[in-house]
């Protein structure tokens, strides 16, 4: 049972040294909360992050969006599905504006850069835990100068990630627990919005917008 006034977190990053550093900062009394934030789980890939959020329903998920098995907005959508009250804070090395905009539009509670001092993250986390939202200035300024991009729904962005991961409509339907007909509807809508007509064209768009890592295995 949750101790009154105590916050609980899951840390998701594919680098053990990053998880260890974040755990230490969260659990140190006075660093973020007077009694610390208890880390109830660590995830090294996107599927583990979703599973731990579903199991623990933590107050906070500290999330890297470039992880094996599942990443980006796909993880955010599934965590929101299973644990809607969890505050999702992304700490990322991603700089591509397409991915940054997709994350901001997905409704995450915080977005911070791994290239910045973590002090901003630690300073802002207490407010985020209490319902505030914070996007690091470097991302706000970059997006301010960016031309208006095509707007995809959260489900369409999730669909994009799963198609690029090589899943067929039937597989996507089974994973998401929806009908193949619904998958086809979302897929068609998404591709029409992006003005693409094939998976290779979709891949080219995703690479250009920074929605996938060109070095990753799809």
Structural commentary:
The chain has 2 domains: 7-144, Response regulator (Rossmann fold), CATH 3.40.50.2300; 154-208, Orthogonal Bundle (Arc Repressor Mutant, subunit A). Helices cover 48% and strands 13% of the residues. The protein is built from 10 helices and 6 strands; from the N terminus they run βαβαβαβαβαβααααα. A 6-stranded parallel beta sheet has the order 2-1-3-4-5-6, with helices on both faces. Strand 1, helix 1 and strand 2 form a beta-alpha-beta unit. Helix 2 (46-56) packs parallel to helix 3. The longest helix has 15 residues, at 180-194. It is globular and about 55 Å long.
Shape field: globular
Mean pLDDT: 82
Measured on Cα atoms, how large is the radius of gyration? 17 Å
Low-pLDDT regions: 213-218
CATH topology of the largest domain: Rossmann fold
> What's the structural domain tally?
2
How many strands, what sense, and barrel or not for the largest sheet?
A: 6 strands, parallel
Short characterization:
The chain is α/β, with parallel strands linked by helices and 218 residues long. The chain has helices at residues 16-27, 46-56, 73-82, 97-105, 119-129, 137-144, 154-164, 169-176, 180-194, 199-208; strands at residues 7-12, 37-43, 60-63, 87-92, 110-113, 134-135.
Topology:
Blueprint: E1 7-12, H1 16-27, E2 37-43, H2 46-56, E3 60-63, H3 73-82, E4 87-92, H4 97-105, E5 110-113, H5 119-129, E6 134-135, H6 137-144, H7 154-164, H8 169-176, H9 180-194, H10 199-208
Parallel strand pairs: 1-2, 1-3, 3-4, 4-5, 5-6
Helix pairs in contact: 2-3, 3-7, 7-9, 8-9
